[in-house]
């Protein structure tokens, strides 16, 4: 797929987030469509935004740092539920994570706070490459589970054709990777 202007700006934003996270010494993980593309090592389709996970305790710090660098808070959700930032037509969405007593990764805020995310979402996270950039992404199995379960977890949200295509792509890549390891 051809890398258009928006994709180039989104990749530059991913670089900026990674540099800010490194400077702050806080971990972040890609989720959503860009996580899949990094895992596959190719741009598969245009993306509306760049989705991230960060620990709830780190989220205000990374958001403030990005705002200091020209990003604007869209304030679409309560800040404890998700932080959405925008600059130059690029939107970043940061969802907060929390850790349970048993080290399980939990939803870090909002109406589903305390609910578990897929098992081993971060333990099996991968460092993936796309366009010469290396980025941490949530585990491919968690990517599939989140895409499969979203219409169940959020009643009224329809299953999207792009999610079905993403699930098939990730599953195919996971099978191929198991055979090559």
Structural topology:
Layout: H1 5-24, E1 28-31, H2 32-40, E2 50-55, H3 59-68, E3 72-73, E4 83-87, E5 90-99, E6 105-107, E7 126-130, E8 133-137, H4 140-153, H5 161-180
Parallel strand pairs: 2-5
Antiparallel strand pairs: 1-2, 3-4, 4-5, 5-6, 7-8
Helix pairs in contact: 1-3, 2-5, 4-5
Overview of the structural elements:
With 181 residues, this protein is an alpha+beta fold. It has a single domain (5-139), classed as Beta Polymerase, domain 2 (2-Layer Sandwich), CATH 3.30.460. It has 5 helices and 8 strands. It has helices at 5-24, 32-40, 59-68, 140-153, 161-180; strands at residues 28-31, 50-55, 72-73, 83-87, 90-99, 105-107, 126-130, 133-137. Strands 1, 2, 3, 4, 5 and 6 form a 6-stranded mixed sheet that branches. β7 and β8 form a beta hairpin. α2 (32-40) runs parallel beside α5. The longest helix has 20 residues, at 5-24.
Question: Which residues form runs of ≥5 with pLDDT under 50?
Answer: none
Under CATH, the topology can be stated as Beta Polymerase, domain 2
Major pleated sheet: 6 strands, mixed
Average residue-wise pLDDT: 91
What is the class in the CATH system?
Alpha Beta
Could you estimate the helical fraction of the residues in percent? Answer: 40-55%
